[in-house]
Amino acid sequence: MSTNKIIFQNAFLIYGLIVVYFLLMKLFGLDNVSELRFLNFLFVFWGVNRAIKMNIDHNSGSYFNNFYAGFGSSVIGVGLTIVGLIIYVGFIDPNFITVLENSSFWGKELSLQMVVFALAIEGIASSAMCSFIVMQYYKSYKSSEVMI
Fold this sequence. Notes:
- The protein is mostly helical.
- It contains 5 helices and no strands.
- The protein has helices at residues 3-27, 40-59, 63-92, 96-102, 112-138.
- Helix 1 packs parallel to helix 3, helix 2 (40-59) packs antiparallel against helix 3 and helix 3 (63-92) runs antiparallel to helix 5 (112-138).
- The longest helix has 30 residues, at 63-92.
- The radius of gyration is 17 Å and the shape is elongated.
């Protein structure tokens, strides 16, 4: 399996998990609990781990190739999530910006552009962190071991 196929497969998996998680939060009325939004980091971390493990098993890639698989998966997954947020705020629930304004993390007078920019920066940073953290484990990994 090619590295690009692994990247896109795991990116869509990260995106799907985050979307389902936020929809469940909305269904249970927990979308106003800001702290729960940080749990999506676990989905990104899991997706990065899965992408790197798959790339090692299928391609026996170098450190940088494996890092690329993890980082690419998470950046694309986060990017798809941001596109999903734009569609959600633009067409489904424009009042979600006020939910973000009422949380202690964002501040007041938000625009969709400000939220998208902040999420893009946070997403790229968390993608890099997750990829570097997971690669510390996998830099001396043998493909016959189990996934963490």
